[in-house]
Specification:
two-stranded antiparallel sheet; about 20% strand
Length: about 90
């Protein structure tokens, strides 16, 4: 199956926005969020990411909506309970 996919360079204004975004996250720590169904690394979020994001897993194909702040709290709780257990 062949696909006609057009690829073009972003406008100059968009390229400036891309450069600014890369500069803004340069000092931030990235964090991966795993697919809850197959545990594959689904998306990468940064420290300033807020709210909800929707993604489709490349492995299992399921779409999931993540609340990024809630996932951060969940991770802290997992670390806390794992330190208690062992």
């Amino acid at each position: 199956m062949s696909r006609n996919i057009r690829v073009s360079e972003p406008s100059a204004e968009m390229q400036i926005k891309i450069i600014r975004a890369k500069d803004a996250i340069a000092s931030q720590k990235p964090r991966t969020v795993r697919c809850p169904y197959c545990r594959h690394n689904s998306i990468i979020v940064f420290e300033d990411t807020r709210g909800h994001v929707q993604t489709k897993c490349k492995v299992c194909g399921r779409e999931t909506v993540f609340n990024v702040l809630e996932m951060r709290r969940l991770r802290r709780l997992q670390l806390y309970y794992s330190s208690l257990n062992g």
